[in-house]
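Subgroup meeting minutes
Present: P.N., E.W., G.H.
Scribe: E.W.

1. P.N. recapped why we're keeping a running log of single-chain structure predictions: easier to compare across weeks, and new members can see raw inputs and outputs side by side.
2. G.H. added today's entry (339 aa).
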Amino acid sequence: MLALRKLINKNLKSSPTISTINRYFTTGTANSISETPSSAYYDELINNAGRDRDFATVQQLLSKRFRDGCFNTNHTFKFISTDISILDDLLKALARLENGFPRKSAHDCLIAQLCRLPRMQDAVRVAEIMVRKQYGANATTFHPILNALTRKKAMDEVWRVMEMMRVCEIEPDVTAYNSILTAYCFSGDLNSAASVLSRMVEEGKVADTRTYDALVLGACRAGKIEGALRLLRRMAYEGVLPLYSTHAHVINAMVKNGYYAQAVEFVMSFAGKDKGLDTENFEILGVRLINSKRDYEAKFVVEEMVRRGLAMGEKLKDFYHVLCATEGYISIHRTSSVK
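Output recorded in log:
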């Protein structure tokens, strides 16, 4: 009997597949999966198996993580960054996943990882596979591709992908258009941005907070600050809540163009409604004023932050201690006193 146990143990240890599964599922750390499963730990296991080219285990782990309620993350397929030649083997493993959300989610996650590498042609190929094999491809599937291309300002390729979506009977959504709109607005190409906006209206797309954020950015980049303020008023009228970045676009543009008092007035007009927004706005304004050598207005900003109990970054803390906490400093209490 002892000899038989030794033989069984020897055979188990010599099997690559069994050895791999044993390593991933019987270590002290892995035992914690059944108790407190986490996406981060599943990512570690999947990347270990992927680097070992053990795609049977990759498939098993992908299936199990969904049963445990652990969704895929930006780190799930990091192992392909060191060896893209394993992509086809990985795709075969993903094709064997349960149809529906597990299979779709895994493919979407893989596309996002390929875009980060960046391997745009491979990302498009995976999207085409999803469409052809009916793995549930939709507009969300193409978002990482569009985002990556717009960051590269490869606008011709962006529009080819949009056309590809239509050919595949996938209607581009407002998020897809927002990526394009942001790219044009960031570069200050307001004519192209206006064309995109007109196309959105024609297709019945409803502008959301990111649409407005892009438009405010475009107006600020073009030096049309009054236009940006009109957009903010339009958002308030329509009940669309601006992003923190939308306020930042206006603050940066005002300081850049020398409208220091107006920038202070702008920040104060929104103060007291959202502490998180106040912290962001006052911090951005204070740093920009210091960089512009506007010590008088910067003193007012840091004093307001102290009075309102807002957290400061290191630059504002240093400025406050050096310039505002000195003898003879006269506190400023009214925005009207800022020249």
